[in-house]
Amino acid sequence: MTQLIQACKYFCNSRKRFKFLYLALIYNLAILNAQHLVEKENQWNVAIYPTFTPDFHSYAIKILDDTLVNGLVYHKVYYSYDSINTVWNYRYGFIREDTLKRVYYKRDHDNEVLLYDFNLNVNDTFKIDEFCTLQVVEIDSISLNDGQTRKRLKLVRKGEPGWGHEYWIDGIGSQFGLINHFGFCVTDYSDVLLCFYNNNKLLFPMAPASCFLTKNDEASNKPRIKLFPNPFHSYIKFENSNSQFRSFKLTTLTGKVMLNGRFEDAGSKINTEALIYGIYLFIVEAENGKQCVSRLIKY
């Protein structure tokens, strides 16, 4: 009888554990699949890093009003160019998302273009134009600051694995910002996502170095630093003719610091053999904290 009672208790407890795990699984799947990129009050803060100049700055995008265009419901895309986002202006852009998690963008009277397809699987392709097609090479998930789990796709330029890669995060977009990620297909693109908000809450990334960069027009900030070769492979050489800039760091596009140091300690050459191929930001900093940024590509 004792053994029978113990068996019943074990069976009941097992059913409770199974029910708990099942509910937890359903809950997590619901979170993972219920994200919408096109949602009011979503905000993207983006940096513009013109190649090899100190003239970097930021803008913010927010999805606000909805409107009807050709029988389809779109949301208007607003822009702000001040660091505290007090003024928002509509710039003739419309965005929508269908039930298959495909995101479309339309400017004024132009035809809409497919901006994202978050239903892609590994090896699926996404055509940008006749000259560039992206291919999904990996799918995983990441956690946002509020604990949500989001699907993430890693894409490369098809047939050119040394070109670098791009990440799409479900409900957020690309690491190159919301609208302009097609620039990944050319070498001189400059937009980089700094921060993503929903209802003024920072959801991504975890600890950004900055969520808005102020435009800097002072001629004295020009770094007069030559970096070569670019693209690079096993090393970067530099010539620093501006003693104002003392330190440097090499980061990923998401802000992760891969290398850092001071110019006088590094000599004239930085070893980069340990870095994987891709696109990096080379940031130089003056003693007063002012920075200049350049983009480098490792092949």
What are the SSEs and their pairings?
Blueprint (H helix, E strand, L loop, with lengths): L1 H32 L8 E7 L8 E13 L2 E9 L8 E9 L4 E6 L5 E5 L7 E5 L2 E12 L5 E9 L7 E5 L3 E2 L16 E8 L2 E4 L20 E4 L6 E6 L4 E8 L4 E6 H4 L2 E3 L6 E9 L4 E8 L1
Antiparallel strand pairs: 1-2, 1-12, 2-3, 3-4, 4-5, 5-6, 7-8, 8-9, 9-10, 10-11, 12-13, 14-15, 15-18, 16-17, 16-19, 19-20
Describe the protein.
This protein is 12% helix and 46% strand. It is built from 2 helices and 20 strands. It has helices at 2-33, 263-266, and strands spanning 42-48, 57-69, 72-80, 89-97, 102-107, 113-117, 125-129, 132-143, 149-157, 165-169, 173-174, 191-198, 201-204, 225-228, 235-240, 245-252, 257-262, 269-271, 278-286, 291-298. It has an 8-stranded antiparallel β-sheet, with no helix packed on it. It has 299 residues and is mostly beta strands. The longest helix is centred in the N-terminal third of the chain and has 32 residues, at 2-33. The chain folds into 3 domains: 1-34; 42-204, no CATH class; 219-298, Immunoglobulin-like. A hairpin with a 7-residue loop joins strand 9 and strand 10. Mean pLDDT is 81; it is low at 1-5, 7-12, 22-33 and 217-221.
